[in-house]
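Support request, please re-run this one:
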Amino acid sequence: MLSPVSLMVAMLVVSGGAAAYTQDYKDALMKSIMFYEGQRSGKLPPYQRMTWRDDSALQDGFDNHVNLVGGYYDAGDNIKFHFPMAFTTTMLAWSVIEFGDFMSPQSGHAIQAIKWSTDYLLQATSIKDVVYVQVGDPYADHNCWERPEDMDTPRTSVAVTKDYPGSEVSAEIAAALAASSIVFRRIYPAYSNLLLTRAEEVFKFADSYRGSYNNSKVGRYVCPFYCDFSGYEDDLLWGAAWLYRATLNKYYFDYVSTNVYKMSRPWNVGEFGWDTKDAGISVLLSEYLFFNKVDWKPFIPYADEFVCSVIPGSPNPSVFYTRALSFLFVVYANNLKWAKRVVQCEHGVVTPSRLIDLAKSQVDYILGNNPMETSYMVNYGRNFPRRIHHRGSSMPSIKQHRDHIGCKGGTPYYESRGYNPNLLTGAVVGGPDEWDQFADDRNNPGQSEPATYINAPLVGLLAYFSEN
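Re-run finished. Output below.
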């Protein structure tokens, strides 16, 4: 599991010292989507391409007499944390909505990756006013090094309710279902309607029974792993923004435009990720605001300020960039192009093409144009991480080694200096430190652990650059 700090650090902006290679964005796109097959929990489908994996966690939810089989393990462990899983789903759906036309022939696999999650999120929200937020005991899991197929640690399932609310995770699930409903609207309309109906129900629950899951009875399970550090108000706005995008019901737009002024904390113009949604909300709404030419305040000024706060050359630049911020650059650049606008910053004008160039440089950095000349995507490029912090990847496949490997039986594999025997193709790891150094070390999860929400915005970026 990556720490909250590590999650935010995706790459450094470098000015020199890196060899330049021509990148194969189509190959990287294919692999970035395939990664999700290595993270699947539950009964694997016949079209599974990551063949060293097998069925796992087939009784999840049975402790509470619900079916929670399926979904994704979030990172290198065997826990299903629904907050980052839902954000991953939202970002995959947004990638298809914005750049699906560039994904062929990978669009079918991208949609399968989304549906693997939405099917699960429907199960997690199948009981009215109950939202399951996690499956597995993270303390027991982190004390073991086991393949998911061998798990014998507790598979505790925990939920938020009216009495013990969790507005942030519930609102993010609503966002994921709403965004995904747009993806399925033409190809699977009945399923799309189901997703949208459930999204509205879950959002109403999140809004009606406000509170952070940090402070509920599930807090001891979700913290410190995926504590909500930014508060739940941004998640409610994010959920409402996606419901507006999916329904065009003005109620949801009014909800966002009214409640943004009632937040109990300042707007974080330059932050976006599984925890903080502020910059994403501004960029998401920008298309509607530009197209309808309605009052742009405060979201277009916020979006512009986001650009000015992170673009190189600003008086107070952000040092670290994330895949999610790069994704926002491209989406906002396309909206600016349509509106025939540029961003006027204190240090000069920022054009859409500059935003796109910056995002491209970040993608290229991940793929190998960096001082280490290392691709941070597994099985892409000439030099890539081979000792990633991932249980299933680092141990013999159950297809080859059928004997059960218990909790501590995996320790020798964890401590080994050898390469992981199974390639988790497409997995993007935490990446280098602030000095551009990368330790290909299983015992350094901050640098060597992949996570579903790291790949999700990169899918959209790779699709865009594969055709532009």
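The first helix runs from residue 4 to 8. The chain has one domain: 21-268+373-467.
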